[in-house]
Amino acid sequence: MRRPYPEHPSLESNPVDGRPIAIFDSGMGGLTVLHECLVTMPNEDFVYLGDTGRFPYGPRPLDEIRGFALEIGRFLERQGVKMVVVACNSATSAALADLQAELEVPVVGVIAPEAEAAVQATRNRRIGLLATEATVEAGRYASLIRSLDAGVSFFPLACPGLAELIESDTPYGAGTVDAVRAYAKPLKQDDVDTVILGCTHYPLIRHVLERAFGREVTLVFSAEETARKVAETLARKGFARTSEREGVCRFITTGEPEQFRLMGERFLQFPIAQVEAVSLTGLGAPA
Fold first, then answer.
1. Rg for the chain (alpha carbons), in Å?
2. Residue 47's closest CA among 15, 73, 13?
3. Where are the alpha helices (DSSP H) in the chain?
4. Please, which residues have CB within 8 angstroms of residue 69's CB and are 6 or more apart in sequence?
């Protein structure tokens, strides 16, 4: 069993590259990606930043989300990381290309791995998408899927308020169940056999979604595919840590640290000893 994260993890130098991997999201959803990364790369160190002070991203304009993502990317690069993982579908949609152009370290998003997995999974070539308003508006899933298979029929559906329900005090309550049923209904009527969970928050209520769609629909989410992409990128660039030392994780939030810690433990299902706070002013401050 992985040991609890220490209060002040020692990000010690180890062969080949002991720098941590950064993961960020608008809130708690990126913990689904962090979990898969911890399983896939147990020897790596991680820095997770949840921008809970500005959550949710989904209803915001794409330009505003792009600004947030660039600010966070610069901040994380100043922390001495070797890669940035954008574990937020809205931020990936709005800013992945800009982050890759501006940052010196590699940047991986969560949309391309999901699109590829969905095209491989579908049997009737009818794919649905549940996502935030910003992700649907950006249209990146549609363009990626059609570049992989132009014959796929694609049905994107924005889900206002669902991420907020998941981060509420009752993420598995009646409000969440009713919302999921309402969002699932049109996609089932469209006869999709594969649905992309296009927000990293949504797998946190995977069982609710599975009951709504039934066994005949394959649910695709980014965490496992993204973790595989991160591991492949590290290996290809010679950045992977090769020692047997077990990795540690540092948590940062732009919101309230204790609230983040309690909710993070609930979703990550692992004790979090400490969460650091960074103000929105400090996030954009130069080193």
1. 18
2. 73
3. 31-40, 62-78, 89-102, 111-121, 133-138, 140-148, 162-166, 174-189, 206-213, 222-237, 257-268, 280-283
4. 24, 86, 88, 91, 94, 95, 98, 99
- Written as one string, the DSSP assignment of 45-92 is -EEEEE-GGG---TTS-HHHHHHHHHHHHHHHHHTT-SEEEE--HHHH
Token couple for 206? 């995977």
Q: Which residues pair with 155 in a beta bridge?
A: 128
| pLDDT, tens digit only, all 287 positions of the chain | 333 333 334 444 445 789 999 999 999 999 999 999 999 999 999 999 999 999 999 999 999 999 999 999 999 999 999 999 999 999 999 999 999 999 999 999 999 999 999 999 999 999 999 999 999 999 999 999 999 999 999 999 999 999 999 999 999 999 999 999 999 999 999 999 999 999 999 999 999 999 999 999 999 997 988 999 999 999 999 999 987 788 999 999 999 999 999 999 998 988 999 999 999 998 987 65
Domains of the chain: 21-109+224-283 (3.40.50.1860), 111-222 (3.40.50.1860)
Which among 198, 129, 127, 206 is positioned nearest to 166, based on CA atoms?
206
| Residue pair 196/217 in contact by the 8 Å Cβ criterion | no
Beta carbons of 228 and 40 less than 8 angstroms apart:
yes
Question: Any idea which residues carry the catalytic annotation?
Answer: 88, 199
Q: In what order do the strands lie in the sheet with 276-277?
A: 107-108, 83-86, 21-25, 46-50, 249-253, 276-277
